[in-house]
Design brief:
single chain; 253 residues; alpha/beta; two-stranded antiparallel ribbon; 10 helices; globular
Length: 253
């Protein structure tokens, strides 16, 4: 019997209305994780959809999006989330002093870390690190990145997003930097996630299905079901007026 088989399954306690929450693949739990500001993080959900963020079992949120970062967006996500949030602060179109100001605001809002895109210069990285105390996550998109230079400039964590080459890039970085915290995209299958973890990633960034994709399957289910929840007309109930009054009295309490 393998060690995994000897372990008891993780008990899940939920409610009827929250039973449809997004459960990230269990294989992600095989990673070592990383301690960030006192919180152990093995999984991050890659989303800015507040409805998804509020209905998943990830350890943290990876809030990066393809538009110029805006403080009102990060504030909304951090306020709504019940888990740590890593906020994107630019690196491509948005950079320089503007990125540094956004990073400072993100820290004030309660972010656990800021994420910069791969084009961010080391000079800009140093500026951000001088202003904030929370970790700076630098995105790596290929094996050509000078990781040591990034670390020297202030990177605390690297995020590997190299597509199909992600596991290979993670393995290369881990061989050279045994203690460096690495988060990486793991794909959608258990096999690709496990490959990324075994390559050396501490934490996995998971991309969930969109709300429209999930709602599509729910709507199919609704169409197949017969109408079961017709509106209740209290006048048709075989209930005395005083019993109805008592029901509403209890309902208000």
């Amino acid at each position: 019997m393998t060690p995994d088989q000897l372990q008891d399954p993780i008990p899940r306690v939920t409610g009827t209305l929250r039973a449809k929450a997004i459960h990230l693949p269990e294989v992600i739990r095989r990673g070592k994780g990383m301690m960030v500001l006192g919180r152990r993080i093995k999984s991050l959900i890659y989303s800015t959809d507040i409805a998804i963020i509020r209905n998943c079992d990830a350890d943290a949120v990876f809030a990066v999006y393809p538009f110029t970062p805006q403080q009102v967006i990060s504030q909304a996500i951090i306020s709504a989330s019940d888990m740590p949030v890593f906020v994107g602060v630019g690196g491509g179109t948005t950079k320089g002093v503007r990125s540094a100001i956004i990073a400072q605001d993100a820290e004030a809002q309660g972010a656990f870390g800021v994420v910069v895109n791969s084009p961010m210069s080391n000079a800009n990285l140093r500026l951000i690190k001088r202003i904030i105390d929370i970790p700076v996550v630098v995105t790596v998109v290929d094996g050509e990145e000078d990781i040591q230079a990034r670390i020297d400039a202030g990177a605390s964590i690297v995020n590997v997003a190299a597509g199909k080459q992600t596991a290979e890039v993670v393995r290369s970085i881990r061989e050279r930097f045994p203690k460096l915290p690495i988060m990486a995209s793991g794909g959608r299958t258990d096999e690709s996630i496990l490959e990324t973890i075994e390559a050396g990633a501490n934490s996995v960034v998971y991309t969930p299905p969109s709300s429209s994709q999930m709602f599509s399957s729910v709507m199919e289910q609704y169409r197949e079901e017969k109408t079961k929840n017709a509106e209740i007309n209290l006048r048709t109930l075989d209930t005395k007026p005083d019993e109805i009054s008592e029901f509403f009295k209890l309902f208000r309490q």
